[in-house]
């Protein structure tokens, strides 16, 4: 997994055959987010990668945010997860929360005995 991460990081810093910087799409970046999550990246690390995605002018989708929510779930970052879920609800159709988004946040709230918030 570390090898793929290194390869991706090298690729995005490289130039294509026309001499222009390589530009990843959201699906490729989501694979990178998943690889980082599988290697133990924190939610903060993933949020930094989400900021990089925004620098590439990529339109984040639900899968992008769900990967961050999974890291928050693992770290029991309930308050941050609630805020991210609200952000998802306010943004465009591509990143609206789905069943997985709500399941992750509700599970955290129940685990933290915040039944009313769930």
Automatic annotation (TrEMBL):
Q: Where are the PPR repeats?
A: 61-95
Keyword set, alphabetical order: Repeat
Q: Supply the InterPro entries for this chain.
A: At1g26460-like, PPR_rpt, TPR-like_helical_dom_sf
Question: PANTHER family from the entry?
Answer: OS07G0599000 PROTEIN
Under which name does UniProt file this protein?
Pentacotripeptide-repeat region of PRORP domain-containing protein
Q: Which organism is it from?
A: Hevea brasiliensis (Para rubber tree)
């Amino acid at each position: 997994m570390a090898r793929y991460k290194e390869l991706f990081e090298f690729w995005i810093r490289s130039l294509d055959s026309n001499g222009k910087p390589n530009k990843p799409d959201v699906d490729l970046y989501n694979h990178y987010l998943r690889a980082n999550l599988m290697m133990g990246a924190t939610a903060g690390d993933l949020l930094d990668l989400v900021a990089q995605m925004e620098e590439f002018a990529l339109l984040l989708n639900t899968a992008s945010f769900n990967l961050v929510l999974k890291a928050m779930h693992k770290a029991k970052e309930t308050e941050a997860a609630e805020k991210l879920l609200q952000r998802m609800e306010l943004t465009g159709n591509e990143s609206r929360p789905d069943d997985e988004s709500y399941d992750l946040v509700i599970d955290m709230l129940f685990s933290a005995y915040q039944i009313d918030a769930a």
